[in-house]
Specification:
Length: about 325
């Protein structure tokens, strides 16, 4: 047996080869109970949501996921999640595409490029942005972002990219999928940037100094040392931001328009799973509508679990490649 095998075996059995102490057992018990409680809490939430959504599940089945209609009129009630799934997907993916590179750039600037005198104030500003309530960002989207898009950015995008299906239609609008995606981008950047910054700070100084001593430029050092060393964690940080975007409700409700339907144009209005739940849950006209809103919550929970599972798999794959399975 090699030394690596012995080390790995000792890691799996933390108390092997030494006297078991009460503190060790207590720590293991408390930590295990906390982990089991977290898993049990997720299970309880899922079971309660499924229970609340069961009338809608029984009435519409899995066809609920592909149906676009949302008619709450009593006696002619028909509900479906397709429109909200599309709105959630397109706004979150656009936000992810914009926020991911920007968050990495912000983190690299704060750790590698910013003058020392600016690092602390800039870091504080980024963390303060993460603490701003979503309703405040939504109001900013209404009063500042919306008019800017209507008068400047939307017409420009329509002229430059109107030949694509994503920028067709009426560009003079205050609400829609594009404002919602930009609001989500603003909310995702500080979360992902803060995590990525901590990851970049964890890179050993010896690796960075050695790369620079070999004649690499700072950009080559970042590309060849910092990013490969932290790529698993950076992916996890971006996925965490994506999870925030998928589940955001209030800010999106304020700027997306609440329109039913599937539209490829980012100028068009739309709605998301979380936004529809937040907007209609308190005023549901019937038990079936209320159950259908809970059904949307079940779908949202399933998406969150799948996203987190994918993030874990990606992180483990990158970690395996970095350590060689040790």
């Amino acid at each position: 047996m090699s030394a690596a095998d012995v080390t790995a075996d000792e890691t799996r059995r933390p108390f092997a080869g030494r006297r078991v102490r009460f503190g060790d057992l207590a720590l293991q018990g408390v930590a295990g109970a906390a982990a089991a409680a977290a898993a049990a809490l997720v299970g309880l939430i899922a079971s309660k949501l499924i229970e609340g959504a069961w009338p809608s599940i029984s009435a519409f089945g899995f066809g609920f996921v592909t149906r676009v209609a949302w008619n709450p009129v009593v006696g002619r009630e028909v509900f479906g999640a397709a429109s909200f799934l599309f709105g959630t997907a397109i706004t979150s993916l656009v936000a992810l595409a914009l926020a991911g590179p920007l968050a990495i750039a912000v983190a690299l600037f704060l750790t590698e490029l910013a003058p020392r005198v600016l690092r602390a104030p800039a870091t504080a500003l980024v963390e303060t942005l993460a603490a701003i309530p979503s309703v405040v960002i939504g109001l900013w989207g209404i009063f500042v972002l919306g008019p800017f898009l209507e008068n400047h950015l939307n017409p420009f995008l329509h002229r430059a990219l109107g030949w694509t299906p994503f920028f067709r239609g009426d560009a003079k609008t205050l609400t829609g999928l594009l404002p919602a995606a930009l609001v989500l981008t603003i909310m995702v950047i500080p979360i992902s940037a803060s995590i990525a910054r901590e990851l970049f700070l964890s890179v050993p100084n010896e690796l960075e100094d050695g790369a620079l001593a070999l004649g690499l430029t700072r950009w080559e050092m970042v590309r060849g040392v910092v990013l490969p060393y932290t790529r698993g964690g950076v992916v996890a940080a971006i996925i965490l931001g994506f999870g925030r975007a998928v589940g955001e409700a209030i800010a999106v409700t304020q700027v997306i328009g609440g329109v039913l339907g599937i539209h490829l144009s980012l100028f068009a209005g739309g709605d998301t799973l979380a936004s529809r739940i937040a907007a209609q849950y308190q005023g549901a006209a019937s038990k079936l509508q209320l159950s259908s809103l809970v059904y949307l919550a079940v779908i949202l929970l399933a998406i969150s679990l799948v996203v987190n599972l994918i993030a874990q798999l990606i992180v483990r794959r990158f970690e395996f490649q970095r350590t060689g399975g040790q």
